[in-house]
Amino acid sequence: MIVYLILTAVSIAVNNIYAQFGHGVRSAAMTLMFLYPLLGGALFYFTLGLIVPRISDRRNYRLFYNIYNSGIAVLTVGSLLKGILDIAGTASGYVQLFQVTGWAGAAAGLVCLIAMVFKRRELS
């Protein structure tokens, strides 16, 4: 969770630094980029820790963890790319690919999490 808070701060810093060199042009995608690590990372893992204590001790936790974190990372990088392209005044088809891949990764991670939690409850 602390890593995601640091990434949130880095996202805000990158946005502000890039805005200094963007000749007054800003992008909503880059401005709101910090929400992916803040809400999808820090808040999600904080809530998960409250709901399912000691979840990291469970079997297959790393599978969920790696897939979900990859999805959040792809969404954050995709938002950065879209922001850079918006400021440059151009577009790319890769932005949609980042969005689809990121959301699919996060959803697949959540499916793994749900399967892991319910499988554990069936065994109890």
User: Radius of gyration, rounded?
Assistant: 17 Å
CA distance, first residue to last residue: 28 Å
Low-confidence residue ranges: none
Give the overall average pLDDT: 92
Largest sheet: none
Q: What letter string, H or E per element, gives the SSE order? A: HHHHH
Return the structural class: mainly alpha
Q: How much beta, percentage-wise?
A: under 5%
* Total strands: 0
Overall domain count? 1
Query: Based on CA inertia axes, which overall geometry fits?
Result: elongated
Q: How many helix segments?
A: 5
Please describe what this structure looks like.
With 124 residues, the chain is mostly helical. It has one domain. It has five helices and no strands. It has helices at residues 2-20, 28-31, 35-51, 61-88, 94-123. The mean pLDDT is 92.
In short:
With 124 residues, the chain is mostly helical.
Keywords for this entry:
124 residues, mainly alpha, 5 helices, elongated
Helix and strand topology:
Layout: H1 2-20, H2 28-31, H3 35-51, H4 61-88, H5 94-123
Helix pairs in contact: 1-3, 3-4, 4-5
